[in-house]
Amino acid sequence: MPSAEKKDSQPRHNRNRTGKPIVQTHSFMSLQYLTIFVLLLAAPLAFSSLTTTVDRTSLTTIEVLTLVVRLDNVDSDDAPDFTPLLSEFEIVQQSGPNVRENLTILNGRRVQEKRAEWRVLLRPKRKGQLLVPALSAAGHQSRAFTVSVDEPSQALKRQLRQYVFFKTEVDRESTYVQGQFIYSVRLFYTGYISGDPPGAPALTDAIVEVLEPNRRYEEVVDGRNYYVLEVIYGIYPLKSGTLTLPPETFFGTRNVRGIRQRTERVSAISEGHTLSVLAKPAAFPNDNWLPASALELTETWSPEQDTFEVGEPINRIITLRANGVSSSVLPRLSFDAGDLAKTYADPPIATDQLSANGTTGQLKTSIGIVPTEPGKLSIPTIQVPWWNTNSETLQWAELPGRVITIKPLAAPANITPTQTPSTTQTAPEVVTEIRYHPISWYLAGLFLLLWLATLALLVFRHRPGSPEDARHTQQPQTGRDEADPATHFSTLQIACRRNDAAGAIDALSQWLRATIGPAATITHWLQQQTDSEIAQHVTHLQASLYSPEGATWQEGAALIALIERAELERESNDNAAANKTVLAALNPG
What we know:
Layout: H1 2-9, E1 14-15, E2 21-22, H2 26-46, E3 49-54, E4 58-60, E5 65-72, E6 89-106, E7 109-124, E8 128-132, E9 136-137, E10 140-141, E11 145-150, H3 154-161, E12 164-170, E13 174-176, E14 181-189, E15 193-195, E16 206-221, E17 224-237, E18 241-245, E19 249-256, E20 262-269, E21 273-278, E22 291-292, E23 294-302, E24 307-309, E25 314-323, E26 341-345, E27 349-355, E28 358-371, E29 375-379, E30 382-388, E31 393-399, E32 402-407, H4 420-436, H5 438-462, H6 467-474, H7 485-497, H8 501-515, H9 522-527, H10 532-545, H11 556-586
Helix pairs in contact: 4-5, 7-8, 7-11, 8-10, 10-11
């Protein structure tokens, strides 16, 4: 027994296979659990990363590289900066982010994984070893690597040409500054191709105009049927020198028929064009530079006759039409009728007609002529110099001068010298009868009522929103402005306060036509103004439209203030005259 008690009093140890005791320590086990717990909590942060991968490491200059950028386990909306790629590649297409989130259970804990992907299609700018640089996003950075770019083999070109290829043409290799190139881009493709067609050329030293968009048809090439998408551009260089049209590119996919539906990438690239832009020839006079392939200058007179009376209005319409230029290049035309007549020119109407043959610009100028004295009115010759881009010669378009006979204003046919005494003798009898006969007051009242009814009808017809007003707004303008003069005056005020020279001159013309009549012009209106400052400011306004410094016109506030003051004085004078007329009618004696 004593030995047994002694044995029980000794500590018990578990033994391993070697017979050595294993001592279980609670503090050691707790440390292990704590370490595992901390690692699990830090797991999402440990795997946060930004990676970049490509679908291939070698390609040709007519192929594209697909770059996949992946941002893992980062709670941020930051997108990678793709700008570093532009040094060696052209970004053809960019999509993303495509965000996916997964929730998993690990050791009884919820672990959330987040992944954002961007896909970028890159076209190499040259052959050689090209660097795909490191990209940055949300505090992470990817690794940089290189890809190998070679020239395409003839076999690859022929293979890709079966599915898609370009044909591009320019109508001429050289033209003059502000002249016209017609650039045709045709994309040939089979029926199983998908992708975005190229956009308009991006040129800094030329204006690009779409003449004919997205014309579609079919064509057979080398015995194979293709669909064709054609776009025709007008290109108008702004300075002389060399103009380079970059190659057109297309990148898409082709559906491959088989047991399993799949797609493969296809691409096409055209040849570029180097064009020559010539400067203005020294032989051209110091007039408005006008290069065109064809030009015509015409006129119409209304009425079409050679003899007029003093005060009889004459309308002359001059039309300048040119092929290969826009209307903004055409010169503004005018003429001086001398001392026997006044001329009033409306702002010219500019239009541009676009077709597959190019741009045709047109400028139509309407000039009103009012003879003021009898005699022979000489209309001067109008000449327009222009440069024929086909024959490369200086030519002149001309409207010949003409002489118009102005006769004195004829007396009324029913008035003769023998009737004049009789008329003057009977006039007192008529006045006396109106003054004393009671029926004259009834007639006057009746006429007043009819006049008021007519005025009310006109107001009703021209009020905003009335059927008559709606019918007028739906019809095209026929030369007379039917809008409310107050509306045009408000437009004039706004244009002047903004120092908008073109808007101010147009609003002033519209306001005068709405206030005075369709034949009203700025020149005639200025002659009726007693304030010479108005004429001075309007002259500066008109001059600014035809000078390189037109955008610097700053006299709008002063001009509209003078016009407003003149209108107040005119209204005051009109009211005084009207009051005097009413008093005279009420007190005939």
